Amino acid sequence: MTSVTDPAVDDPRGVPEEHGPLRLPLSPVSGDRVRPWSVAATVVGAVAVIVASQWGYAAVLGVVAALALAVVLGWPAVGGTRTALATSVVLGIAAAAMLGATVRDDLRWLPAAVALGMVAAFFHQLLRPPPRAGLVLSLLAAVGGLVLLASGALLAVSAHDAGSGPVIVLAMLAAAVSVVGDLLAPVRVLRLFLGFIVLLAGMGVAALAASWTDELTTMGALGIGAATATVSWSLRRVLALQPAILGAPGQVAVGAGSVLLVGALVRLFAVLF
Q1: Cβ contacts of residue 201 below 8 Å, gap of 6+?
Q2: Burial (CB count <10 Å: 0-12, 13-18, 19+), residue 129
Q3: Tens-of-pLDDT digits for all 273 residues of the chain?
Q4: All structural domains of the chain with their residue ranges
Q5: Inter-axis angle of helices 84-101 and 110-126, nearest 10
Q6: How many CB atoms lie within 10 A of CB 2?
Q7: Residue 67 to residues 37, 48, 155: CA-CA distances in angstroms?
Protein backbone atom coordinates (compact mmCIF):
# COMPACT_ATOMS: atom_id res chain seq x y z
CA MET A 1 0.00 0.00 0.00
CA THR A 2 1.44 3.36 -1.06
CA SER A 3 1.48 6.07 1.59
CA VAL A 4 1.12 9.78 0.89
CA THR A 5 3.72 11.90 2.63
CA ASP A 6 3.20 15.29 4.15
CA PRO A 7 5.29 18.02 2.46
CA ALA A 8 6.05 19.48 5.88
CA VAL A 9 7.60 16.13 6.86
CA ASP A 10 9.43 15.68 3.57
CA ASP A 11 11.48 18.78 4.17
CA PRO A 12 11.76 20.37 7.63
CA ARG A 13 12.59 23.69 6.03
CA GLY A 14 9.06 23.85 4.64
CA VAL A 15 10.00 23.37 0.96
CA PRO A 16 7.78 20.61 -0.46
CA GLU A 17 8.93 17.81 -2.71
CA GLU A 18 7.19 17.33 -6.03
CA HIS A 19 4.75 14.41 -6.18
CA GLY A 20 4.03 13.59 -9.79
CA PRO A 21 3.33 16.53 -12.10
CA LEU A 22 1.85 18.78 -9.39
CA ARG A 23 3.69 21.16 -7.12
CA LEU A 24 2.19 20.91 -3.67
CA PRO A 25 1.63 24.01 -1.52
CA LEU A 26 4.24 24.94 1.04
CA SER A 27 3.93 23.74 4.60
CA PRO A 28 2.18 26.02 7.13
CA VAL A 29 5.61 26.70 8.63
CA SER A 30 6.76 28.32 5.39
CA GLY A 31 3.47 30.18 5.06
CA ASP A 32 4.12 32.04 8.31
CA ARG A 33 7.37 33.59 7.17
CA VAL A 34 7.65 37.26 6.23
CA ARG A 35 7.71 37.81 2.46
CA PRO A 36 9.76 41.02 2.19
CA TRP A 37 9.14 41.67 -1.50
CA SER A 38 5.40 41.25 -1.04
CA VAL A 39 5.39 43.69 1.87
CA ALA A 40 7.52 46.18 -0.04
CA ALA A 41 5.38 45.95 -3.19
CA THR A 42 2.22 46.53 -1.17
CA VAL A 43 3.53 49.57 0.68
CA VAL A 44 5.28 51.12 -2.32
CA GLY A 45 2.29 50.50 -4.58
CA ALA A 46 -0.19 51.97 -2.12
CA VAL A 47 1.94 55.04 -1.42
CA ALA A 48 2.49 55.55 -5.15
CA VAL A 49 -1.27 55.56 -5.75
CA ILE A 50 -1.75 58.09 -2.93
CA VAL A 51 0.85 60.43 -4.44
CA ALA A 52 -0.48 59.95 -7.97
CA SER A 53 -4.05 60.69 -6.85
CA GLN A 54 -2.94 64.24 -6.05
CA TRP A 55 -2.02 64.70 -9.72
CA GLY A 56 -5.14 63.25 -11.30
CA TYR A 57 -6.26 60.44 -13.55
CA ALA A 58 -3.21 60.21 -15.82
CA ALA A 59 -0.82 59.77 -12.91
CA VAL A 60 -3.01 57.13 -11.23
CA LEU A 61 -3.33 55.33 -14.55
CA GLY A 62 0.45 55.19 -14.84
CA VAL A 63 0.84 53.69 -11.35
CA VAL A 64 -1.95 51.18 -11.96
CA ALA A 65 -0.29 50.19 -15.26
CA ALA A 66 2.99 49.53 -13.43
CA LEU A 67 1.22 47.39 -10.82
CA ALA A 68 -0.66 45.58 -13.57
CA LEU A 69 2.63 44.80 -15.31
CA ALA A 70 3.91 43.16 -12.12
CA VAL A 71 0.76 41.03 -12.03
CA VAL A 72 1.02 40.13 -15.71
CA LEU A 73 4.60 38.91 -15.30
CA GLY A 74 4.37 37.15 -11.94
CA TRP A 75 0.79 36.04 -11.44
CA PRO A 76 0.78 32.99 -13.78
CA ALA A 77 3.42 31.27 -11.66
CA VAL A 78 1.58 32.16 -8.45
CA GLY A 79 -1.64 30.76 -9.87
CA GLY A 80 0.08 27.50 -10.80
CA THR A 81 -0.75 27.60 -14.50
CA ARG A 82 0.90 25.12 -16.84
CA THR A 83 1.08 27.75 -19.60
CA ALA A 84 2.80 30.64 -17.85
CA LEU A 85 4.00 32.50 -20.97
CA ALA A 86 0.68 32.22 -22.80
CA THR A 87 -1.22 33.27 -19.66
CA SER A 88 1.03 36.33 -19.31
CA VAL A 89 0.26 37.24 -22.93
CA VAL A 90 -3.48 36.87 -22.29
CA LEU A 91 -3.28 38.98 -19.13
CA GLY A 92 -1.16 41.57 -20.94
CA ILE A 93 -3.72 41.93 -23.74
CA ALA A 94 -6.56 42.13 -21.24
CA ALA A 95 -4.72 44.69 -19.11
CA ALA A 96 -4.12 46.93 -22.10
CA ALA A 97 -7.79 46.72 -23.07
CA MET A 98 -9.06 47.34 -19.54
CA LEU A 99 -6.78 50.30 -18.89
CA GLY A 100 -7.64 51.71 -22.29
CA ALA A 101 -11.32 51.48 -21.36
CA THR A 102 -10.73 53.68 -18.32
CA VAL A 103 -10.28 56.72 -20.56
CA ARG A 104 -14.05 57.00 -20.30
CA ASP A 105 -15.35 57.57 -16.79
CA ASP A 106 -18.66 55.78 -17.37
CA LEU A 107 -17.17 52.25 -17.56
CA ARG A 108 -18.95 51.72 -20.89
CA TRP A 109 -16.16 49.64 -22.46
CA LEU A 110 -14.74 47.96 -19.37
CA PRO A 111 -17.13 44.96 -19.48
CA ALA A 112 -16.14 44.38 -23.10
CA ALA A 113 -12.46 44.47 -22.14
CA VAL A 114 -13.05 41.95 -19.36
CA ALA A 115 -14.99 39.74 -21.76
CA LEU A 116 -12.08 39.92 -24.21
CA GLY A 117 -9.75 38.65 -21.51
CA MET A 118 -12.10 35.79 -20.64
CA VAL A 119 -12.42 34.73 -24.28
CA ALA A 120 -8.66 34.88 -24.74
CA ALA A 121 -8.10 32.81 -21.58
CA PHE A 122 -10.30 30.01 -22.91
CA PHE A 123 -9.18 30.29 -26.53
CA HIS A 124 -5.49 29.89 -25.79
CA GLN A 125 -6.27 26.65 -23.96
CA LEU A 126 -8.04 25.35 -27.06
CA LEU A 127 -4.80 25.81 -28.98
CA ARG A 128 -3.02 23.33 -26.70
CA PRO A 129 -2.89 19.72 -27.86
CA PRO A 130 -4.78 17.13 -25.77
CA PRO A 131 -4.80 16.07 -22.98
CA ARG A 132 -4.24 19.69 -21.87
CA ALA A 133 -2.76 18.86 -18.48
CA GLY A 134 -3.70 21.28 -15.71
CA LEU A 135 -6.50 22.83 -17.80
CA VAL A 136 -8.73 23.84 -14.88
CA LEU A 137 -5.83 25.20 -12.82
CA SER A 138 -4.54 27.20 -15.79
CA LEU A 139 -7.99 28.70 -16.41
CA LEU A 140 -8.40 29.57 -12.73
CA ALA A 141 -5.01 31.30 -12.74
CA ALA A 142 -5.99 33.37 -15.77
CA VAL A 143 -9.40 34.30 -14.36
CA GLY A 144 -7.83 35.25 -11.02
CA GLY A 145 -5.42 37.56 -12.80
CA LEU A 146 -8.28 39.12 -14.77
CA VAL A 147 -10.12 39.87 -11.52
CA LEU A 148 -7.11 41.76 -10.17
CA LEU A 149 -6.66 43.70 -13.42
CA ALA A 150 -10.35 44.62 -13.62
CA SER A 151 -10.26 45.85 -10.04
CA GLY A 152 -7.18 47.92 -10.88
CA ALA A 153 -9.05 49.43 -13.82
CA LEU A 154 -11.83 50.47 -11.43
CA LEU A 155 -9.20 52.18 -9.30
CA ALA A 156 -8.01 54.16 -12.31
CA VAL A 157 -11.57 55.10 -13.26
CA SER A 158 -12.21 56.44 -9.76
CA ALA A 159 -9.43 58.98 -10.28
CA HIS A 160 -11.58 60.79 -12.87
CA ASP A 161 -13.73 62.15 -10.06
CA ALA A 162 -11.98 64.63 -7.81
CA GLY A 163 -14.48 63.80 -5.09
CA SER A 164 -13.11 60.25 -4.95
CA GLY A 165 -9.71 61.52 -3.81
CA PRO A 166 -10.29 61.08 -0.06
CA VAL A 167 -11.64 57.56 -0.61
CA ILE A 168 -8.59 56.59 -2.69
CA VAL A 169 -6.18 58.00 -0.12
CA LEU A 170 -7.92 56.34 2.81
CA ALA A 171 -8.19 52.98 1.04
CA MET A 172 -4.52 53.00 0.08
CA LEU A 173 -3.47 53.98 3.60
CA ALA A 174 -5.46 51.01 4.93
CA ALA A 175 -3.89 48.70 2.33
CA ALA A 176 -0.43 49.89 3.34
CA VAL A 177 -0.96 49.38 7.08
CA SER A 178 -2.44 45.93 6.42
CA VAL A 179 1.13 44.64 6.06
CA VAL A 180 1.21 44.55 9.85
CA GLY A 181 -0.47 41.17 9.42
CA ASP A 182 2.40 39.98 7.22
CA LEU A 183 5.05 41.27 9.60
CA LEU A 184 3.44 39.62 12.63
CA ALA A 185 2.85 36.27 10.93
CA PRO A 186 6.01 34.66 12.40
CA VAL A 187 4.80 35.43 15.96
CA ARG A 188 3.16 32.16 16.96
CA VAL A 189 0.88 33.53 19.70
CA LEU A 190 -0.59 36.15 17.35
CA ARG A 191 -1.33 33.97 14.32
CA LEU A 192 -4.93 33.27 15.27
CA PHE A 193 -5.58 36.99 15.72
CA LEU A 194 -3.89 38.37 12.60
CA GLY A 195 -7.16 39.12 10.83
CA PHE A 196 -8.45 41.01 13.87
CA ILE A 197 -5.18 42.93 14.18
CA VAL A 198 -5.34 43.95 10.51
CA LEU A 199 -8.97 45.01 10.94
CA LEU A 200 -8.07 47.22 13.91
CA ALA A 201 -5.08 48.69 12.05
CA GLY A 202 -7.29 49.60 9.09
CA MET A 203 -9.91 51.18 11.34
CA GLY A 204 -7.23 53.01 13.31
CA VAL A 205 -5.68 54.68 10.28
CA ALA A 206 -9.19 55.43 9.00
CA ALA A 207 -10.16 57.18 12.21
CA LEU A 208 -6.97 59.22 12.07
CA ALA A 209 -7.57 60.18 8.45
CA ALA A 210 -11.19 61.09 9.14
CA SER A 211 -10.03 63.62 11.71
CA TRP A 212 -8.07 65.43 9.00
CA THR A 213 -10.91 65.88 6.50
CA ASP A 214 -14.57 66.85 6.53
CA GLU A 215 -15.30 65.00 3.28
CA LEU A 216 -15.86 61.63 4.95
CA THR A 217 -17.93 60.76 7.99
CA THR A 218 -16.22 58.86 10.79
CA MET A 219 -18.41 55.79 10.29
CA GLY A 220 -17.83 55.83 6.56
CA ALA A 221 -14.08 56.12 7.03
CA LEU A 222 -14.08 53.24 9.51
CA GLY A 223 -15.93 51.06 7.02
CA ILE A 224 -13.51 51.91 4.21
CA GLY A 225 -10.46 51.28 6.37
CA ALA A 226 -11.72 47.99 7.78
CA ALA A 227 -12.81 46.58 4.42
CA THR A 228 -9.79 47.58 2.35
CA ALA A 229 -7.20 46.53 4.93
CA THR A 230 -8.86 43.14 5.41
CA VAL A 231 -9.26 42.44 1.69
CA SER A 232 -5.71 43.48 0.81
CA TRP A 233 -4.15 41.37 3.58
CA SER A 234 -6.43 38.39 2.93
CA LEU A 235 -5.18 38.00 -0.64
CA ARG A 236 -1.56 37.87 0.51
CA ARG A 237 -2.42 35.51 3.36
CA VAL A 238 -4.37 33.10 1.17
CA LEU A 239 -1.50 32.87 -1.32
CA ALA A 240 1.23 32.53 1.33
CA LEU A 241 1.48 28.77 0.74
CA GLN A 242 1.92 28.93 -3.03
CA PRO A 243 5.37 27.62 -4.13
CA ALA A 244 5.96 30.64 -6.40
CA ILE A 245 5.76 32.92 -3.37
CA LEU A 246 9.30 31.82 -2.48
CA GLY A 247 10.70 33.94 -5.31
CA ALA A 248 10.78 37.72 -5.67
CA PRO A 249 8.61 37.86 -8.86
CA GLY A 250 5.82 35.93 -7.17
CA GLN A 251 5.97 38.07 -4.05
CA VAL A 252 5.92 41.30 -6.05
CA ALA A 253 2.96 40.07 -8.10
CA VAL A 254 0.98 39.20 -4.98
CA GLY A 255 1.84 42.52 -3.33
CA ALA A 256 0.87 44.50 -6.43
CA GLY A 257 -2.29 42.42 -6.80
CA SER A 258 -3.30 43.14 -3.21
CA VAL A 259 -3.19 46.86 -4.02
CA LEU A 260 -5.13 46.49 -7.28
CA LEU A 261 -7.78 44.34 -5.61
CA VAL A 262 -8.71 47.28 -3.41
CA GLY A 263 -9.78 49.17 -6.54
CA ALA A 264 -13.21 47.52 -6.61
CA LEU A 265 -13.86 48.66 -3.05
CA VAL A 266 -12.61 52.14 -3.86
CA ARG A 267 -15.11 52.41 -6.70
CA LEU A 268 -17.92 51.08 -4.51
CA PHE A 269 -17.23 53.46 -1.63
CA ALA A 270 -16.71 56.40 -4.00
CA VAL A 271 -20.22 55.84 -5.34
CA LEU A 272 -21.70 55.38 -1.85
CA PHE A 273 -19.96 58.33 -0.24
Answers
A1: 174, 177, 178, 180, 181, 229
A2: exposed
A3: 444 443 443 443 444 433 333 455 655 555 568 899 999 999 999 999 999 999 999 999 999 999 999 999 999 999 988 889 999 999 999 999 999 999 988 888 999 999 999 999 999 888 887 887 788 888 999 999 999 999 999 999 999 987 889 999 999 999 999 999 999 999 989 989 999 999 999 999 999 988 887 778 889 999 999 999 999 999 999 998 888 888 999 999 999 999 999 999 999 998 887
A4: 35-272
A5: 160
A6: 3
A7: 14, 10, 12
Residue 70 identity: A
DSSP per position, 81-122: -S-HHHHHHHHHHHHHHHHHHTTSTT-SSHHHHHHHHHHHHH
Containing 14, the helix (H) or strand (E) segment is none
Distance, CA of 87 to CA of 117 (rounded, Å): 10
User: CA–CA separation, 52 vs 63, rounded Å?
Assistant: 7
**Pairwise CA distance, residues 95 & 72, whole Å:** 8
Closest CA to 255 of 68, 88, 28, 27: 68
User: What is the phi-psi region of residue 137: left when phi exceeds 0, alpha when psi lies from -120 to 50, beta otherwise?
Assistant: alpha
User: Measuring CA to CA, how many Å separate 23 from each of 15, 81, 237, 247, 260?
Assistant: 10, 11, 19, 15, 27
- Integer-rounded Cα radius of gyration of the chain: 19
Residues 6+ apart with CB under 8 A from 65: 95, 99
